[in-house]
Every structure is written in structure tokens, then in C-alpha cells.
UniProtKB/TrEMBL annotation:
This is GAL3A protein. The lineage of its organism: Eukaryota, Metazoa, Chordata, Craniata, Vertebrata. InterPro entries: Class_I_gatase-like. NCBIfam families: PRK11780.1. It comes from Thalassarche chlororhynchos (Atlantic yellow-nosed albatross).
Length: 189
């Protein structure tokens, strides 16, 4: 297992205590290294031939830094290294796991694929970003409604997705969904 991140500046830095952006500037790779305890490499160095699968975490950083979804929605662009990594694994017929908001990366890079970001309606207030499912459909992909503790497997494309924090749910349910995503990726590897 190796961890990678793009060597780019963050779109912005958020003070999570206050919930607002700061004037501070940070680098995605450097910040990721802090979280990974330094055991990380530049995404530009990743070679799909050296790995059995690739997993992308989610979070607002994906929507701001790995692509421009947070600002541009379905009209977003995907970081070139993220896109080439996804394409390399797909071309090699190796599984790709995506959780939370990161399934939008597949929706942009692989038209016609199947992904989930949870539900397409804000069921009981648990899916406040349900409109993401419609945007995925507008990109020509199929959104599959799933509960937070489930994942979806697009067998044709070897893409496994789960909604994670796209659902307001207890942490153990999010953990279970991510667990199913990892298990399904490993089955495909």
C-alpha cells in the first residue's frame, strides 16, 4: 500500500473550527503528508503497473483540489494526474474504488459508467447533496441509489463506489459502506 497526492496548491485553506476559509496557502502533497505521517509520494510518480488497484478517498478536498466540482459542478475539470491515474488503472483493467464525492471523478473521466453517491432524493434529510446524482446522470453516467452501508460495483468498468459522508449517518454506518467498497475492490483485484 502506498499513498499519493498531487503536488499542487490547495484551492483554499479552511479553518474547520470556524467553517470559513483563511488567507493561508498550503500544498496538497505537503498537507497530505501531514495526515499520512510523511509516508506519501507525488501522484505524478504513480505507476499503475506496480499496483493491483487504486482507491480515492472523498471529502471536500476532492471536490476542490482533485477536480473543480465544488465550484463548477458537472462542468468541472479533473486534475491531469488524477485523470491519467484513473485512465491508467481502467486501461489495465484494474479496479478503482471511490467514496464520498470522489465518484464524480469517474463520472467525468468515464462517460457511461455506473456510480453511487447515495440517494437521488434527500431522504429524511440524510442526503443533503442528493442533486449530485442528477448531475452524474447529466454527464451520461448511471447513478445507482444505495444506502450508506452499501457500495455499488460497476463490473464492466471495475469501478466500486460508496457514498460515505455524502450521507448524514452515524460513523459506524459510513465505516461499513467504505468497508464494503474495499472488499469489492479486493475481489476484483
Amino acid at each position: 500500500v502506498k499513498i499519493f497526492a498531487p503536488n499542487i496548491e490547495q484551492r483554499d485553506v479552511v479553518n474547520h473550527l470556524k467553517g470559513s476559509p483563511t488567507e493561508e496557502k498550503r500544498n496538497v502533497l505537503v498537507e497530505s503528508a501531514r495526515l499520512a505521517r510523511g509516508n506519501i509520494q507525488d501522484l505524478a510518480e504513480l505507476k499503475a503497473s506496480e499496483f493491483d488497484a487504486v482507491l480515492f478517498p472523498g471529502g471536500f478536498g476532492v471536490a476542490k483540489n482533485l477536480c473543480s466540482w465544488a465550484v463548477d459542478g458537472k462542468n468541472c475539470t479533473v486534475n491531469e494526474h488524477v485523470s491519467s491515474t484513473l485512465q491508467a488503472f481502467h486501461s489495465a483493467k484494474k479496479p478503482i474504488g471511490l467514496c464520498c464525492i470522489s465518484p464524480v471523478l469517474a463520472a467525468k473521466v468515464f462517460p457511461g459508467c455506473e456510480v453511487t453517491v447515495g440517494q437521488d432524493k434527500n431522504v429524511d434529510g440524510r442526503f443533503p447533496d442528493a442533486e449530485t446524482a442528477s448531475a452524474i446522470a447529466e454527464l451520461g453516467c448511471k447513478h445507482i441509489c444505495k444506502n450508506v452501508n452499501e457500495s455499488h460495483v460497476d463490473k464492466a468498468n471495475k469501478i466500486v463506489t460508496t457514498c460515505a459522508f455524502m450521507c448524514k449517518a452515524p460513523l459506524h454506518e459510513i465505516f461499513d459502506g467504505i468497508g464494503t467498497m474495499v472488499q469489492e475492490v479486493l475481489k476484483l483485484a
